[in-house]
Design goal:
Elements (H helix, E strand, L loop, with lengths): L18 H12 L8 E8 L4 H5 L10 E8 L4 E8 L4 E8 L8 H12 L2 H8 L9 E7 L6 H5 L2 E8 L11 E10 L4 E7 L38 E4 L2 E4 L2 E8 L3 E11 L2 E17 L11 E3 L24 E8 L5 E23 L4 E18 L2 E10 L4 E9 L4 E2 L9 E5 L2 E4 L1 E11 L6 E10 L11 E8 L16 E10 L5 E8 L12 H5 L7 E5 L21 H5 L10 E11 L9 E12 L19
Antiparallel strand pairs: 1-2, 2-3, 3-4, 5-6, 6-7, 7-8, 9-10, 10-11, 11-12, 12-13, 13-14, 13-23, 15-16, 16-17, 17-18, 18-19, 19-30, 20-22, 21-22, 23-29, 24-25, 24-26, 26-27, 27-30, 28-29
Bound molecules: nickel (II) ion (NI).
């Protein structure tokens, strides 16, 4: 392997892998005698350097560029985890596993759809429903989950669900072919079994959204609204480093998580103060709440089973952001290791978001107002029927906000004539949108004024009677969450609960620890039962807050390989150790749930639903950090 020279252009250890580096990593793996003819590249990502290397890095220091590669071997069903040094041209780790199923890759969607459409049994099942033109059939490759069926442990499979177009390019989600599931083997690309339980009428009502299909009626009473930045944006992009006013951060990317936010600091006077070391959407799960046999097994892990990074949109094709935009490209590898570019995958721009602060003193004829801006770093992924927009907002007042926008299509199901269901909402005579939830788990590797941090839960409580002569008094009640078991927490709006990550090394001018509080937005809990399959497989969903001591291999809250797993891995397993999380380098995991009982307005394309949380400075600064915002020169 050593004769291949690496094309290293990185200037920082956390720089995303270039296409050339990814190509070289693929070449190095393929050149190994361990590489087999039936091996597929499931992912090729930056082998992230350890923290000490990143923190100790000085400009011009040598960088060992590594790739983390996952292969699946169709010859024997094994999974291979490889670390390859691109710098040195050698594999430093090559582990073979037989107990896991990696995430699906795009080639498997395409090949399995073709295989199902070529299957005689599938043709027969479709013919029973009057469908003979396979070009009109669309198949969504739902991950199979784990329900104790031996087929799940003996094969790499999907449970495919079927829709049909009335004419090419129309909205197939209006025509679910429900009542059957196709279980296909992804190793041999064969149909293993068709669970054909119920023949339902093919819905005949169209519901279009795409231009050329939908009604051409558009609103005509809208005048132009232009965002003009005549001197360009206020941010600078230098490779993957992004600087905007006092914020300084690095953009990262993985095939699994998509956008990663690295090494966030805020310059306070002359002081460059760390806030976050690494943040990403680490897992998400969409459990369906409908008992029908086709819907009950819909439990997609959109990060760990599908890979948001591999499914990122090229924003070159739309108009997703406004203003002076800087795009960063991304790329992924196909099963044979070919590098495929995703032009303009990451959008960077700034937005005006109303006022930051204002005060009017009528007596002295004083009025001051300052407008607020935020820096937005975002990407959008399409996972089958749904779109997820992941937005990181950095504000001039020190806040960091994570917003997730949900849009796209409902994954529909079908009803018999005259039938109704309590487990979904009817969208037409024979079509309904099943009840489901979306859970997002964001991993926040915190670094509030350094790595020595603790997490404090603050509830607001009424004062005890002896301190409360007028009955009005209330105060914050702070509890340090010292161990992993103590730090498994849920939101409680009744006590205005928040969690604060504090520094154990730095205090503010009042002598209290500097900190950032995590403020919950919309949230809920799963409704699946204790003995459900998803309870074991996505255990992270049952707490909104988890805190763990930093461990480099603890990255994925439902385990490294949730696909077909029986569960128990990730956060529930790690935190069973009940390790100390006080005054240490810690990771905060915040889980938020969006409950979705569909409505007619969600159809045919769901208007954005938004969910998120805020990290807000709380005693981090000695006073408002927004006092130096300049007055606007555009108000009269
Ligand atoms: Ni939904």
């Amino acid at each position: 392997m050593t004769d291949l020279i690496a094309p290293i252009t990185a200037t920082h250890p956390l720089d995303r892998l270039s296409e050339a580096e990814t190509t070289r990593a693929v070449e190095l793996v393929k050149a190994s005698e361990r590489f087999g003819g039936r091996m597929r590249f499931m992912s090729v990502d930056l082998g992230e350097p350890d923290k000490a290397t990143v923190i100790g890095f000085g400009e011009g220091d040598s960088i060992d560029r590594c790739a983390a590669v996952v292969l699946f071997d169709g010859a024997d069903g094994s999974t291979h985890e490889i670390t390859v040094s691109i710098t040195n041209g050698v594999a430093t780790r090559w582990d073979r596993r037989t107990d896991v199923q990696p995430a699906l890759v795009v080639d498997e969607f395409i090949e399995s759809e073709a295989a199902i459409k070529a299957d005689a049994g599938f043709h027969a099942a479709m013919a029973k429903r009057g469908i003979t033109d396979m070009d009109l059939v669309t198949i969504d490759a739902w991950t199979a989950g784990n329900y104790g069926d031996p087929i799940e442990s003996d094969h790499r499979i999907i449970r495919a669900l079927v829709w049909v177009h009335d004419r090419p390019g129309d909205n197939h989600y209006a025509r679910p072919i429900d009542g059957l599931m196709v279980i296909a083997d992804l190793t041999d690309m064969t149909v293993l079994r068709i669970d054909d339980e119920r023949v339902l009428p093919v819905p005949d009502e169209s519901s279009e959204w795409a231009s050329g299909h939908a009604s051409e009626t558009v609103r005509t009473d809208i005048k132009p609204l232009e965002i003009i930045q005549p001197e360009g944006p206020s941010f600078t992009v230098d490779g993957d480093r992004l600087r905007w006013q006092k914020w300084d951060l690095r953009v990262g990317w993985t095939s699994r998580e998509g956008l990663v936010i690295n090494t966030v600091t805020y310059t306070d006077g002359d002081d460059v103060r760390p806030v976050l070391y690494r943040a990403s959407l680490a897992e998400m799960t969409v459990p369906y709440g409908d008992p029908s046999s086709t819907q009950a097994r819909k439990n997609a892990f959109d990060v760990g089973e599908y890979g948001l990074g591999m499914l990122a949109n090229s924003l070159a094709l739309g108009c997703d952001c406004l203003g002076e935009i800087h795009y960063l490209d991304a790329h992924f590898t196909t099963a044979d290791g070919t590098v495929v570019a995703i032009p303009q995958a990451i959008c960077i721009h700034e937005e005006d978001v109303g006022i930051s602060w204002k005060h009017t003193n009528v007596r002295h004829d004083q009025s001051e107002v300052r407008r607020l801006r935020r820096l937005v770093v975002s990407f959008i992924a399409t996972v089958g029927n749904y779109e997820y927009g992941i937005y990181w907002h950095f504000y001039q007042d020190g806040r960091i906000e994570n917003e997730i926008k949900l849009t796209g299509m409902l994954s529909t199901a079908a009803l018999d004539t005259g039938e109704d269901t309590a487990y979904g909402t009817k969208l037409g005579e024979h079509v309904y949108g099943p009840n489901h939830q979306h859970f997002f788990c964001t991993r926040l590797d915190m670094a509030v004024d350094g790595f020595a941090n603790s997490v404090v839960e603050v509830d607001t409580v009424a004062a005890p009677p002896e301190e409360n002569p007028y009955g009005n008094a209330f105060r914050g009640q702070a509890t340090v969450l010292s161990t992993e078991a103590q730090a498994k927490r849920r939101i409680d709006p009744n006590v205005a609960r928040y969690w604060k990550v504090i520094s154990n090394e730095r205090t503010n001018r009042m002598g209290t620890p500097t900190g950032y509080k995590l403020m919950a937005g919309e949230n809920c809990l799963p409704f699946a039962t204790e003995d459900s399959s998803i309870r074991a497989r996505a255990g992270y969903m049952w707490n909104h807050l988890w805190v763990t001591p930093f461990a480099p291999d603890e990255r994925h809250p439902a385990g490294d390989y949730p696909n077909q797993s029986a569960g128990g891995e990730g956060l529930p397993a790690w935190t069973a150790q009940d390790r100390n999380v006080e005054n240490t380098d810690l990771v905060v995991w915040y889980t938020m749930g969006h409950n979705h009982l569909p409505s007619l307005e969600d159809w045919p394309v769901m208007p954005v639903a938004s969910i998120g949380f805020t990290l807000k400075p709380t005693g981090f600064f000695d006073a408002s950090p927004a006092m130096d915002l300049p007055p606007s020169n555009h108000c009269h």
